[in-house]
Amino acid sequence: MPLNIVENFPLAPQTTLGLGGPARFFAEIDELADLLPALQWAEERRLAVFVLGGGSNLVVADEGFPGLVLRLRTRGMAWSEEGGEEGGGEARVEIQAGQPWDDVVAEAVRRNGAGIECLSGIPGSTGAAPVQNIGAYGQEVADVLRGVRVLDRHNLEMRDLDREACAFSYRTSLFKREPDRFVILSVTLGLVQGGSPCLRYAELAAALGGNTTPGLDQVRETVLALRRKKSMVIDDADENRRSAGSFFTNPIVTRQAAEEIAWRAAEAGLVAKPADVPRFTLDDGRVKLAAGWLIERAGLAKGFRMGPVGISSRHALALVHHGGGATADLLRLAMHVRAVVRKRFGVTLTPEPVFLGLAWPA
User: Fold this and answer.
1) What is the pLDDT, as a whole number, of residue 84?
2) Residue 10: beta bridge partners?
3) Does residue 94 sit in helix, strand or coil?
4) From CA 90, how far away is CA 82, in angstroms rounded?
5) Which of 74, 126, 258, 312 has the most CB atoms less than 10 A away?
6) What Rg, from alpha-carbon coordinates, does the chain have?
7) Per-residue H/E/C for 59-72
8) Do 2-72 and 77-229 fold alike per CATH?
9) Which listed CATH number (1.10.10.10, 3.30.420.40, 3.30.70.330, 3.90.78.10) goes with 243-356?
10) Active site residues
């Protein structure tokens, strides 16, 4: 077989959940020159293709995946800076898809480039960042993205897509909506040279102890500390380590729906008054609710277990595999959480991870 394509390759060890069956075929792409032959090999055999990143946001079917899984291992960051460290110019960086994301954040902070410091500690590869439009603590990758170089699988040609073409919105993008079309090759970001860190997120501001002028390095370390407390940094010694991070997105509802949920919570004694329900009004007038708060107030406490899976003991949004389980167990738990929240608040939670070889039940 070309390109060292491996048959029946186990995928569970390649994911942070540690669940799922094997890929029918698997290959690692160290050089972009090998990508096109691999795609053509799959096309000749009419095989579906999936590009695997860090496996930190992936749920694999117990039956595995009957196609070809590719992992891009291309690394590298090419920086170009305009202006000095205090000049406020833009620092641009083109990052190869296989580069670990947190390495990029660490280097940006070291170079005093503001814009992604709050995205510290997010696992996975850079190529996966635009797919999910990763975000945390008031920042998201779409804020600083300047372009994405892709291979269009429709015609096997390379294209450069700007931010608008990526069609970003909350935790989604063109790439997530059309998962079989593009292979992301590199990502270009534009950071503010010598810029101030983002402090719009209340939890982060509070953790900084009232310091309104912290350095980027201090914000990064604070974000990492916050994530560790929630088991959102990969740690082999952590009992919650087998997860996909936040399993559900924060639901976005109309203002009227948010008010009704707040009144329902107050009438049930979950809060002293409707205004105490955590929510954030978006620019378009809709309201983002806190999925973790809804899960806990629906009666599902941190540490809740259903056999080999459960809710993280540190973060209600993370569903955890404790070992010896199957993807089917995880789905049963996820659907149970969705049903309980829907019954209590009338809100239907939407999963955040990518599903491979299976579909999320509507």
Assistant:
1) 46
2) 22
3) strand
4) 6
5) 126
6) 21
7) EECCCCEEEEEEEE
8) no
9) 3.90.78.10
10) 171, 246, 352
Helices (H), the chain: 35-44, 101-110, 129-132, 174-177, 202-207, 216-229, 255-267, 291-297, 327-345
pTM for this prediction: 0.93
- Please state, in angstroms and rounded to a whole number, the distance separating the CA atoms of residues 336 and 67: 30
Match 């994530």 to its residue by tokens.
Answer: 227
Strands 139-140 and 145-152 come out as unpaired
Numbers of helices and strands, H then E, in the chain: 9, 21
pLDDT reported for residue 2: 54
Contact 182, 169 (CB under 8 A): no
Identity of the amino acid at 126 = T
How do beta strands 354-356 and 58-60 pair?
parallel
Distance CA 209, CA 195 (A): 21
Q: What is the dihedral of CA 42, 156, 190, 172, to 10 degrees?
A: -60
Question: What are the structure tokens assigned to 94, written together?
Answer: 């083109």
User: Do 38 and 68 meet the contact criterion of CB atoms below 8 Å apart?
Assistant: yes
In CATH, the number for domain 77-229 is 3.30.465.10
Count Cα neighbours of 153 within 13 Å in the Cβ-side half-sphere. 21
**Distance separating alpha carbons of residues 111 and 103, to the nearest angstrom:** 12
Evaluated on CA atoms 353, 281, 290, 216, the torsion sign reads positive
Q: At the top level of CATH, which class does the domain 2-72 belong to? A: alpha beta
What is the C-alpha separation between 239 and 1, in angstroms, rounded? 40
Whose tokens are 């186990």? That residue is: 10
Identity (one letter) of the amino acid at 221?
Answer: E
Domain edges within the chain: 2-72, 77-229, 243-356
- Report which residue type is found at 82: E
pLDDT under 70: residue ranges of the chain: 1-2, 82-88
Q: What's residue 3's pLDDT?
A: 75
